[in-house]
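pinned: reference chain
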Amino acid sequence: MVEPKLPGAVERYVNLGDCYDHEGLKKVRGELEQAMKGYKGCYARAYRCLRAAAEITADRTALIQTPELEEKIAKRAKGILSRECRRGGEGEGKVRQRFLSAVTHQGFLVEFGTVERQCRRVYELVDTYGISHLLLTHLLSGAVAAGWDVIACPSPMAPDRLEHLILPQLSLAFVTTGNGTAYPRHPYRRLRMDAMVDRELLRRNKARLSFSRKVSAALVEEAVSSLAQAKAMHDDLERIYNPYVDFSRVRTTAEWAVRELLGNEPEHHLGEASTADRQE
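pinned: its structure tokens
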């Protein structure tokens, strides 16, 4: 539920609860309570696992992030910006934030198709240790300063860290892969972020880094399993609810909302079924 800031003047309430057969639902209250309890518990477990995985990933990144690495990445970003993001207009560009990836009941998904529909040139950042965020931060600030609009895509597990960038005006994108994800097409350019990490540092911390990757992957796998259970329980909830929902009234409400959004005058009030709906 989203509370309107200026109800009536700007936003309006849409109460789909009026579409329920409340008397009928009272008869299946026990089933609903049981299904709802398990459903919420699965989500809570999934979120705990994802938070833990994000913490372990952050620890792994901190272990190999050195001033020397940051300098290398800043230099690489400067070269990319000089080649790809020359001055494009007056003032600074705008930044919009959108999630391009997600952890779902089907696993970790990335909508690379969204990138391909907007960009001909795609840089693939192959990253095992979570350092592409450093490069993307430089690229974001540089592109905006040059006057280009940027769609910044944060990590779903750590929203304070960048995972992908899309610059539609330049038909240019930067996507992070690794740890189970891969770009499905041949990229415009591929940057192996791991190659920038100090080899001796990796050698000294090999066991710890390996353990960290395994634990993080196991936690994400457990989260996916929990989300799959939540999806199954959600399907059960829908099965229980569906016989007690007036879907003709739902359609009427949706049609009213469409007319409001398009600026047309509603033919009847919210919640009132049309003559055709009443005849159904």
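why pinned: The first strand starts at residue 95 and ends at 97. The chain has a mean pLDDT of 89.
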